[in-house]
Design brief:
Elements lengths: L18 E2 L11 E2 L3 H29 L5 H25 L6 H5 L2 E5 L7 H28 L4 H15 L11 H6 L1 E5 L22 H4 L4 H13 L2 H15 L7 H21 L14
Antiparallel strand pairs: 1-2, 3-4
Protein name: RDD family protein
Membrane topology: Multi-pass membrane protein
Subcellular location: Membrane
């Protein structure tokens, strides 16, 4: 059994205090960089602006549809819509393939599971449900008090202090974790932005390697994303490890060109999964069977 011996690597940029080992189930350490508190705050503000725009549009639509209805019914619909929007926004986007809301994508961030496994729906729901307790619940309480004209100085100070404690919590732990991240076992990390190169797109000069259906059926969407991170990172040790793992599982001989092999495998796997999606089949990871 031959293990890869190359160990040259490109050191990740960014401060050493924010770099963390992120070992995938295949034994590859991607050495991810955590998102800074400022970058995460900026991403949240971008998402908040987009949600406010969406909320204004929905409010106008509800007002036009129920213009003849009672104000109480309109208010209840608005509250339900606002609750659904602020929770569904984060949950649905982070459950997607990129693991990021529009704000996080603009700021180059994404959510990952700290144990290196695929990010699960339960973890996404848990981390975002805590945001209700951390921020929106006390702020909603203050809003109701102000609307009813019954604001109390002590309760107002308590609600603001509660929100501030949770808001600044990431500044007081080394992994920049929200309480929701602690509960869900997640990190918010910087996305790898290196180029995949011309080998991964159509029109390259050299011929592509051909892979059997059995070789391509070994992995799913999660492994495809991990492979993309490895290729973007360009670290020889990670590329060698992944190439050896795939060759070993698929029974493919080593031709000495790890990057070219992974580039071709990535392109072939991507094409296979895209064809599956067109037929209504999606395979989340190597443990799941294709399903419609």
């Amino acid at each position: 059994m031959r293990w890869p011996t190359r160990n040259r690597s490109k050191a990740p940029k960014g401060p050493a205090s924010l770099r963390r080992s992120f070992v995938t189930p295949e034994g590859v350490d991607l050495k991810l960089e955590l998102g800074s508190a400022g970058t995460r705050a900026a991403a949240f503000m971008l998402d908040a602006v987009l949600m406010i725009v969406a909320l204004v549009i929905v409010t106008i639509a509800i007002a036009l549809l129920f213009v003849a209805s009672k104000a109480d019914a309109l208010g209840i619909l608005w509250l339900i819509g606002f609750f659904t929007l602020r929770n569904g926004w984060f949950i649905l986007f982070e459950m997607g393939g990129r693991g990021a809301t529009p704000g996080k994508r603009v700021m180059g961030l994404r959510v990952v599971a700290r144990d290196g496994a695929r990010l699960t729906g339960g973890a996404v729901i848990a981390r975002n449900a805590m945001r209700e307790i951390e921020v929106f619940l006390p702020l909603s309480f203050l809003g109701f008090q102000a609307a009813a004209g019954t604001a109390d100085a002590f309760l107002t100070l308590f609600a603001l202090s509660w929100s501030c404690i949770f808001l600044f919590f990431p500044l007081f732990n080394r992994d920049r974790l929200r309480v929701g991240d602690l509960l869900a076992g997640t990190w918010v990390v910087r996305s790898v932005t290196g180029s995949l190169g011309h080998d991964l797109v159509a029109g390259k000069v050299r011929p592509r390697r051909a892979f059997s259906d059995a070789a391509l059926s070994l992995y799913g969407v999660y492994e495809l994303q991990t492979l993309e991170d490895v290729l973007r990172g360009g670290r020889d040790d990670a590329i060698a490890t992944v190439a050896w793992t795939i060759r070993n599982k698929a029974g493919i001989a080593d031709d000495g060109d790890d990057f070219g092999f992974l580039s071709d495998y990535y392109a072939a796997l991507c094409a296979r999964l895209e064809r599956g999606l067109m037929l209504g089949k999606r395979r989340a990871d190597k443990f799941a069977s294709s399903r419609g």
